[in-house]
């Protein structure tokens, strides 16, 4: 890194060090116990100070704003994680199957973002229930969900899929694009403005890496082929990383996620299924189980086809899964919002 110390940005960083003040930086990459930070548009290698392990402090994730002590000749030290305005979590089974898990922890995937691009492809891999799950988790995170349907150039009826996705919840924004032909890419421009941070979320093979390359304008991410029989792919992104765009926006790319367990997402589920929660309030009995009770508004709504039975079953499934997770949850060091009210 020595060759960079003559630049104007490094002069700013060194001046802050001379003033004996901690330096603000953003975590752009995490690999085991090492961190890549962005500070004044420069990359810095860093490690955690030992107090993080001794005092059970919040561990940094991609997108976190941190305070560091700069080391010119080696790894800098992360001293503190600042408050998060948003965070994206899932359940961590510690490598066990769900049926054998006695307790679960929260795994925070990313922090401090404004939008979540929920990426799915218009081929055999399209899954409305999976998108609905991701929307619920996004609403719980504090960010705004935007569904990006890729490979639109290969689909004969794009509008049919858009209508299905828009039925998930009110005011859900949907963009159908092709990163290969450029079709619909202009729809993403309002989200790619200076200071905006976006998380990319989707299973392997949906075209996240191709999408990043199209947005950046260069082959930033490695792209892998998908299997023809089920349109699924191998994981191309192997770790979470923050990519800064020429516009000043940032993208947090995540590895393809096969399973995304719910972590304390009750509020996000209710927001996603606001039509169902409103109907539940009309039931005759407060403790209605929506099975045999007279005056059940839910049963009536399903009979009148105001709510589809499939949507009701998905709502019940997500609620039950969230309840199961809460019963087995233990507090982890990354479940806190931050260590102080200081912000960047």
Automatic annotation (TrEMBL):
Compartments where located: Cytoplasm
Enzyme class: hydrolase
Record text on cofactor binding: Binds 1 zinc ion per subunit.
Protein name: Small ribosomal subunit biogenesis GTPase RsgA
NCBIfam families per the UniProt record, alphabetical: ribosome small subunit-dependent GTPase A (TIGR00157)
Swiss-Prot/TrEMBL keywords: Cytoplasm, GTP-binding, Hydrolase, Metal-binding, Nucleotide-binding, Ribosome biogenesis, RNA-binding, rRNA-binding, Zinc
Enzyme Commission code(s) on record: 3.6.1.-
GO molecular function, one term: GTP binding
InterPro entries: G_CP_dom, NA-bd_OB-fold, P-loop_NTPase, Ribosome_biogen_GTPase_RsgA, RsgA_GTPase_dom
GO biological process, one term: ribosomal small subunit biogenesis
EngC GTPase domain mapped to chain residues: 111-258
All residue ranges annotated as the CP-type G domain in the record: 102-260
Role this protein plays: One of several proteins that assist in the late maturation steps of the functional core of the 30S ribosomal subunit. Helps release RbfA from mature subunits. May play a role in the assembly of ribosomal proteins into the subunit. Circularly permuted GTPase that catalyzes slow GTP hydrolysis, GTPase activity is stimulated by the 30S ribosomal subunit.
UniProt key word ATP-binding: no
Binding sites annotated in the UniProt record for GTP: 150-153, 202-210
UniProt keyword Metal-binding present: yes
Top-rank taxon: Bacteria
Binding site for Zn(2+): 283, 288, 290, 296
Pfam families per record: RsgA_GTPase (PF03193)
Family to which the UniProt record says this protein belongs: Belongs to the TRAFAC class YlqF/YawG GTPase family. RsgA subfamily.
Native species: Candidatus Galacturonatibacter soehngenii
GO terms for cellular component: cytoplasm
Cofactor needs: Zn(2+)
């Amino acid at each position: 890194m020595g060759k960079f110390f003559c630049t104007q940005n490094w002069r700013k960083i060194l001046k802050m060090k001379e003033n004996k003040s901690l330096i603000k930086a953003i975590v752009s990459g995490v690999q085991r116990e090492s961190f890549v930070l962005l500070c004044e548009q420069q990359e810095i290698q860093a490690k955690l100070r030992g107090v993080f392990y001794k005092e059970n402090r919040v561990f940094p994730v991609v997108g976190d704003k941190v305070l560091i002590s700069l080391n010119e000749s080696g790894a800098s030290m992360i001293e503190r994680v600042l408050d998060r305005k948003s965070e994206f979590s899932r359940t961590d089974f510690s490598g066990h199957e769900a049926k054998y898990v006695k307790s679960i922890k929260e795994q925070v995937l990313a922090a401090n973002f404004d939008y979540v691009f929920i990426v799915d492809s218009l081929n055999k891999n399209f899954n409305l229930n999976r998108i609905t799950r991701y929307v619920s988790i996004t609403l719980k995170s504090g960010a705004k969900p935007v569904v990006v349907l890729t490979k639109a150039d290969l689909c004969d009826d794009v509008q049919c899929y858009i209508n299905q996705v828009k039925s998930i919840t009110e005011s859900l924004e949907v963009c159908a694009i092709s990163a290969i032909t450029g079709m619909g890419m202009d729809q993403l421009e309002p989200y790619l403005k200076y200071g905006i941070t976006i998380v990319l979320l989707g299973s392997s093979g949906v075209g996240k890496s191709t999408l990043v390359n199209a947005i950046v304008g260069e082959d930033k991410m490695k792209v892998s082929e998908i299997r023809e029989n089920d349109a699924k792919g191998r994981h191309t992104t192997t770790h979470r990383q923050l990519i800064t765009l020429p516009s000043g926006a940032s993208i947090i790319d995540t590895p393809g996620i096969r399973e995304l367990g719910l972590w304390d997402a009750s509020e996000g589920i209710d927001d996603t299924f606001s039509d169902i929660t409103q109907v539940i309030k009309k039931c005759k009995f407060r403790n209605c189980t929506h099975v045999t009770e007279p005056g059940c508004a839910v049963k009536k709504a399903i009979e009148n086809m105001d709510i589809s039975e499939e949507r009701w079953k998905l709502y019940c499934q997500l609620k039950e899964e969230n309840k199961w997770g809460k019963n087995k949850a233990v507090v982890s060091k990354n479940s806190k919002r931050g260590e102080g009210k200081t912000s960047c």
